[in-house]
Each structure stands twice: as C-alpha cells, then as structure tokens.
Design goal:
Largest sheet: 7 strands, mixed
Protein name: Peptidase M11 gametolysin domain-containing protein
Strand content: 25-35%
Number of helices: 5
Radius of gyration: 28 Å
InterPro entries: Peptidase_M11 (IPR008752)
Strand order of the largest sheet: 2-1-8-7-6-5-3
C-alpha cells in the first residue's frame, strides 16, 4: 500500500519488500509518479519499476521527476516540415542531461494533439543493469497525456504508456503523429544511437535529407519541472505474471514490383478521365519507382490495404460461392480507401503486395482472382498475366486459376490494379496445386503503393500570393497559405494558355485511424471541377478578383480511412491559366496537402 506525502508510511507489504522493483515503485509514488501502462493495461510496462520492471524509470518519468533533461524539444516551432533531423542520442543511464527526445506534436491541431511522445535509448548498464533484454540497446517509445506533461495540472494519471521498442536499423511511420522514425546503429562503446526523425503532412515520401553533416545537438537549459500531482492506487502484491509467449517474427517487407506504367488517360467532364482500355494480350512491364532526392538509407513502411468486405458480398455473382469457381469467403475485397465499393478515381493505379515462403522444394500454386476492373499479376517482379473482372456473368471467369511457380524461399506476389470507372476493388487467394490449402488471401495485411500511371508533374508558376494577388489573398484573408503554389502544365501560363484542352491535377492524401473532414481552399483561373476518389464534389470559379469573389469556399470534404485521390479539373476560358489550392484539417490549423510540383496532371 502506498500513500502520498506528507504522511510518513510509503508502503506496507509482506512480499514486495523483497522485490527491488516494488520497493522502488512505492518510493517513487511519494515523488508523484503513477503506474506505467502498455496497450491500455496498467502496470504492463516492463521497462520501468513503475510497471512490472526492476529498472530505472522511463524517459517521461525521469523528466517528470526532474532527474533527466531532453536532448531536444520538437514542436512546430523547432521542427521543420518534411526535413529529416538527425540526433546522436545517449542512453538514459548516461544522464542526466540530453538523454531523450521530447516531441510535442502541435502540428496535428488542437483536436488531434492529445499526447506527447518521448524517444529514449535504454541500455543494460549502471542503474539500468536489470533492464530486460527486450528493451536493451533499443529505442524506447512512450507517450502520455499532453495536458499533464505540458502544464503539470494537479490531480489525475497522465498514463505514461510504452508503445514500442525499436531495434537498430528499423523504421516506423506513426501516422497518428505524422512522424517517420529511423533508428541507426547502436554504438556499444559510447552507448549512443543515431536517431532520424521527420514530420510530414500526408506520408514519409515527402521527407528529404538535408545536406548538412550529422552532429550531436547540445542540450537545452531545462529547468526541473514543478512538483507533480498526488498518485493513485497501490501496486498489487501478487507474484509477477510469466512473460507472454514470443510473437511470430515479422514478415519480410515485400519488394515493390517494378512496373513501367501505361500512358495516362485524357480527362473528360464531369468525371476525371478513365484509363484507355488495356488489351489482355499486351500486359505492361512492372512500375518504375519514382526517384527520391536524396535517397534515404531506409525504405519507409508501406500502408496496409483497406478491407471493403468479404469477396462473397463485394463480388456476388454466378462464379462466387462455396461450390463455384471462386470459393474462399475469407478472401477480402480490398482497396486503398474505404468507400471504394461505390466509386474510385481512375487517375491512379494501386499495387497490392504480400509474401509467401516456401520450404523444402519449389512448388506450383493456383491463384484465383476477381478484380474491378483490370489486374496485372507479378511474382518476384515478373509479369505473369493480366486478367479482368471475373464475377459478372458465368463465362466471365476466364484464364483462371492462374498457375504460379514458387521457388524455395520467400516470394513476392503483387497485383497492380486499374479502375476504368465506378467502384474499385480486388479479391484473391493463392492455394496449393491441389486446391486444398490456402497459402495467402487478400486482407488488410497486404500493403499497397500508388502510382500516377506515368503522368507528368505540374509546373510551379510562383507563390499563390504573387500569382493571385488580390483582396482575398493574404495571411489574414480567406486564402492564407503562401506555400500553396500556382501550378499549370507549362511555364509561361501566367501570361497566356490554351483554351482548347482542360488539365486535371491530382494528388493523394492518406488518413489513418478514422475518417475525417477537411477544408479545401482554392483559387482558379478560370473554372475548377473538384473530385474526391473519382466523385465530383463541386465546381468553383476564380476567387481572387474582388472581395465578394471567394464564394462557396472553403469546400468541406469527407476523407475516408486510407489513401484518397484529390483531383482538380481546370478549364481556361481565355488569357492566363493556373490553379492554387490547399487542403487543411477541419479546424484549419494543419495543412494536409497543397498545390506544388509534386502534383501530377493529365491533359484532354
């Protein structure tokens, strides 16, 4: 039993007196610390004595005690967007100064910013000699309630929670924090590790490495925090639970298939354009990855597919059922965003990937697949075949199942899917040659990449503040993002552009966790049709010419979980041609994407 100060008794337990962790926990309660958490379970953080561990406190607990200070504090004021920042981070036992990275992700906006994150290297030495091996030499990640951590409000548990321990050489994308973390080599001699961090708007593909050399950051002059609030209930005195069974090792990260892409389609009003029909007898070569400058030594993890529903429901038809050609109800229909059963963009292609490991000897497997509309099948980067549809009528399930030869070891299976209009989805399962054993099936464990089908990138004409100077443009005006660039399909369009063709500009936005509403601000010369996932949302004109010109904006847009496509189909009615836009969070505080040369375009 523990009691807060000013009473004298710290604890009174018959078994815990012989446990170093218990004694330390009960003493630290008197300094204001609460129990450690993991996965929503109190006490379950074994990296600290405040949970079920016997080692020193975790990084946020050391900070709250005033026993250690951060190497750096990262927030929107100190942390540049889309630039990797590198730090040489010492282990916490080296302390007390500069032994953690504290992150205040205020770039998420007031509604989404609820927790702070702490990054710290733990190593088995000195006061941490009893640290468990699962945390030794690894980057430990904790989070806690930001209202307590930033202001030390009295009362309540900040719920210091362990969210992971990353091995050297690993990386993780935290879409809930809009962060990409890269963990370098652990130097046992100096007990340091190289940590690389970037914050992004939509995904880690935005991040680039600066040209400046790596150097350790000097610690800031932190002052110890004020006395924290009184803590909660005591630690149970029952014996420590046995450790859980080890998890299965993670799958190897699948390789992206290298596919040269078909020519982009010509847009048509009011929908963005559909891709040209593809002949099944002439499959494309695998996609070329877009080059990154400068290249990262790590490959950012790919997002996971979104399950739309069972294949039996999504592809109901004469070829689907327990005794039909396609007979696996556990194969899920997947796409890159929720809601694709109703409609999806035709301006992107999605490549879904998984891996299969074969032991002993090479084997032949059978692939059953249904797709809306076209799928190119790749095994280890080699194009096997191309199929269309499969569920619509009894004779539609042709050239299937597809025979695939799998060598010994781990093979990559990829399905590059194109939508020619309406809904988009794919369902597949790979079974043994006798059809009795399913080796893999489509579900949310598959990852995906998106490509713009070789569409060229937009040309930046200049800042929106310069190109659309007027009464509605400025830091305190209706359109207030100077980083949104005016773009077109060629340079010189600020003076004159053709009126014969329309240009469709496209980007993607990835939403994790739950669907959200966003706000689109846009100025256009002259008319823009706005599309989300292929659905026409609205049409707007101009916006910068006079004070009453910025009507029906910002445009409210609902973004589902997954990767959505935002397209602006722009028509010029004479003179200059250009468009500038930015999409922000519902409170207007965070820009999710803005027009620039990363957007692609099609003309027609």
């Amino acid at each position: 039993m523990w009691t807060p100060l000013p009473q004298q008794q710290s604890f009174n337990c018959s078994l815990g007196i012989f446990s170093k962790g218990t004694v330390m926990q009960e003493i630290l309660h008197n300094f204001g610390l609460y129990h450690g958490w993991k996965d929503g379970v109190e006490y379950d953080d074994s990296s600290t004595a405040m949970g079920f561990g016997g080692s020193c406190p975790s990084a946020p607990e050391l900070w709250r005690l005033g026993w250690a200070t951060p190497l750096v504090l990262l927030n929107s004021s100190s942390f540049p967007l889309a630039i990797y920042e590198k730090f040489i981070l010492p282990a916490t036992y080296v302390g007390p100064t500069g032994v953690m990275v504290k992150i205040q992700p205020d770039w998420l906006g007031n509604q989404a910013y609820t927790k702070n994150m702490y990054l710290a290297l733990r190593a088995k030495a000195a006061g941490d000699r009893d640290l468990l091996d699962q945390f030794n030499g690894k980057l430990n990640i904790h989070e806690l309630n930001r209202f307590f951590d930033n202001r030390f409000l009295p009362g309540g548990d900040p719920k210091v929670s362990l969210t992971g321990a990353l091995d050297p050489g690993s990386s993780i994308t935290r879409f809930d924090y809009k962060l990409h973390l890269l963990v370098g080599v652990f130097d046992k001699t100096t007990s340091t590790i190289i940590l690389t961090v970037c914050r992004f708007v939509t995904g880690p593909n935005e991040c680039i490495f600066p040209s400046s050399p790596l150097s350790p950051m000097p610690p800031s002059p932190w002052s110890p925090p004020p006395s924290p609030p009184n803590p909660p209930s005591p630690r149970p005195t029952f014996p420590k639970s046995p450790p859980p069974s080890p998890l299965n090792p993670p799958r190897p990260r699948p390789l992206s298939p290298k596919i040269p892409l078909p020519s982009p389609p010509n847009p048509a009003s009011p929908r963005p354009p559909s891709p040209q029909s593809l002949l099944l007898s002439s499959p494309p070569n695998p996609p070329r990855p877009r080059p990154r400058s400068p290249p990262s030594p790590f490959s950012p993890p790919k997002p996971h597919a979104i399950e739309l529903g069972s294949s039996f429901t999504e592809f109901a038809g004469p070829n689907v059922g327990s005794n039909k050609s396609f007979r696996d109800p556990q194969a899920m229909a997947i796409w890159v965003n929720a809601g694709a059963s109703s409609g999806a963009s035709t301006l992107i292609a999605a490549t879904f990937t998984t891996t299969i490991t074969i032991a002993g000897q090479a084997t032949q497997a059978l692939l059953d697949i249904m797709v809306d509309d076209i799928a190119h099948v790749f095994v280890n980067g080699a194009n096997i075949t191309t199929v269309k549809w499969g569920w619509r009528w009894s004779g539609d399930y042709t050239n299937r199942p597809i025979k695939i030869n799998l060598p010994v070891g781990t093979s990559t299976l990829s399905l590059r899917v194109q939508n020619t209009g309406g809904p988009a989805r794919v369902a597949a399962y790979l079974s043994s040659s006798d059809g009795n054993t399913v080796l893999t099936r489509t579900n949310s464990m598959w990852t995906y990449t998106i490509d713009a089908q070789d569409a060229p990138c937009a040309i930046e004409l200049g800042s929106s503040f310069t190109e659309f100077a007027g009464p509605n443009v400025g830091s305190n005006k209706s359109f207030r993002d100077p980083q949104a660039m005016a773009i077109w399909v060629n340079a010189g369009a600020s003076s004159y552009a053709s009126t014969v063709t329309a240009a469709t500009f496209t980007t993607t936005i990835t939403i994790a966790g739950q669907a959200t509403q966003a706000l689109l601000d846009i100025m256009v010369d002259d008319i823009a049709d706005v599309f989300i996932n292929g659905a026409n949302i609205t049409t707007v004109k101009w916006g910068w010419r006079w004070s009453g010109d910025y009507t029906n904006r910002p445009i409210k847009i609902n973004l589902p979980v997954g990767t959505s496509t935002l397209s602006l189909r722009v028509q010029n009615t004479g003179g200059p041609a250009r468009v500038a836009a930015y999409l922000s969070s519902s409170d207007g505080n965070t820009v999710l994407t803005r027009t620039n040369s990363a957007w692609t375009y099609t003309v027609g």
